[in-house]
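#help-structures
NK: newbie question, is this the right format to request a structure? protein is AAA+ ATPase domain-containing protein
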Amino acid sequence: MSFIFGLRLSLNSTLTFSYSSSNIKRGTSIKIGFSSTYLNDDLPSRTEFNANATSTNHSNALIPTTSLLHESFSVPTGSPTQYCRVIPFVRPNHVQVRGFKTDRNVHAEVSRSPGFNQRIKQLLGLEKPMPKPAVQQQTQLNAEALETSLKTNENASPEEVEKFKVAFAEGYLAGQKNVKSPGKSTRWLKLVQQLLTIVLFLSIFISLMASANGSMFRIQLGNQVEVDPEEIHVTFNDVKGADEAKQELKDVVEFLKSPEKFSALGGKLPKGVLLVGPPGTGKTLLARAVAGEAGVPFFHAAGPEFDEILVGQGARRVRDLFKAAKERAPCVIFIDEIDSVGAKRTNSVLHPYANQTINQLLSEMDGFHQNDGVIVLGATNRRDDLDKALLRPGRFDVEVNVPTPDLTGRKEILTLYLGRVRTKSIDVELLARGTTGFTGADLENMVNQAALKAAIDGADSVTMKYLENARDKVLMGPERKSRIPDEETNEITAYHEGGHTLVAYHTKGSHPLHKVTIIPRGPSLGHTAYMPEKESYHVTKKQMLAMMDTMMGGRAAEELIFGADKITSGASNDLKQATSLATAMVMDWGMSESMGLRTHDTSSKALVTVNDLSPSTTDQIDSEIKKILQDSYDRAKAILKAHSKEHKLLAEALLKYETLDADDIKAILSGEGSDKFKR
């Protein structure tokens, strides 16, 4: 078994001897390592040298550890030692380490490897670093002490001492040659690291102070945007289709322009105006028009921008917003989607700070401190979610409803946007009638889509064709480029849409037909479009039953032409709308003879639907809804059976031309153009 012994002696904090032997015998050469771990530029990090040592008091057997430590040779210890460690290694079976502490040269350690405090003092000039000559002098003193110890050592022969000195010198020179000093770049790198650490701690301290004191080193994160009056070019002339809302807001503009006229009579400027309406009806446009007409600063903020992950951030931003507005009064603050910040307060223990933002908003709008000359405009499409304290007089004094535009409003909006593009032969009246339920944003998008399509096709102007295609795209999605190659599917679709068309044509109270097509658009394989003659403000029972019969025409046509076992899922949306209409007739509008003149309310706003109706009443309602739907289906089937020939002509014409307008439908069903549209 092979044994390896190692001896390590440290003469000071960084100067060490290393001794190792493998199967040491009499006259065997040994290796002694001398290392220096100074951090200074002019000293090597490690120096090694060889020396021959001869053991005279032992046989050729392996030298035991104790003999190695005490009798093998003597290492001079002229300088204070840090530690002396004997490490016997047994390969591969045994490893053992032993050691003990000795004295340390603290002054040398601090001067060669200063700590963080010493470096800060040196950086500030409070303490000077130990110069290099002093370090070299310390090294020279250690070497002199080592030489003195070698000379006075009685156990070492003169030859061994000389070999020790030669090996020491050679090893020192070799280490100084091979080991590179850290250089100035290392010192600069450490200095930069220290400076970055200081900057980091200062940044954290400043951030904490900014959070604790809202006015110190405050950083705005985009919670408010001020628009100067000269930058707002929107006036009430740019707002169309909302005459009632404009009239209400014109009074607010008059308050801002001439507040003394109202204060002379004892009147006060309203604190806030709440704009309520569906998305896209022009609430934001109205708010900008108020600022543009009044010529006052306009602060715009979105409700979701107030609250962040940090507690108290939303309340602080509300304070900052109103503080900036007070400095620029008279002015307008517009908070879009105010329901996200002004929702009803909660008592949940899981979110104890959830009400801070709305409480701050309530305080700023009507608290102890008055906000003279500051009007708050809020916009929401979820009024029921707002806190009642926010809706009371003194905060939002005026509530303006901004509904979807009626026929007259749609004509005004279309005229406005069509005037911005190049058009030719546009029937605005027809477009307005065919866009019932469109908001101002929808109409703007429709005109823009038509202009884009005309530009792609290389047309000189936007025509009715592009506008009607754009309307269908907004309603049902983009048109598919080609017809479905499956002829059976196309035939079913043609008879399905023909059933809708035929029932609508022969049912009194139904809306006039506009066109029918089997070209797929979005999820639909085809559709039948209607054109109301005038704006409808209420719907009669006759009109509801007519709409329901028309919805049932598609499924009835599939059953009559292809059989009950080949009906398809294409009528799913028709059945859903018909069921919703029949349910409303029975439960909400009192249009059922068996249920009487009453409503049947079920709460569906909660997480779980609550039904307070008795089981017998529920069964009676279900039976009545089923009866209304079945009667409607039977009426649709009767019309299709009576006009089966016209139904076939419609389907064949759709398979041939894909799209039929109102004139084509009238020609086919009246028999005037039956030969022309035969397949």
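mod (FA): yep, format's fine, and the tokens are attached above. The chain is about 45% helix and 10% strand.
NK: thank you!
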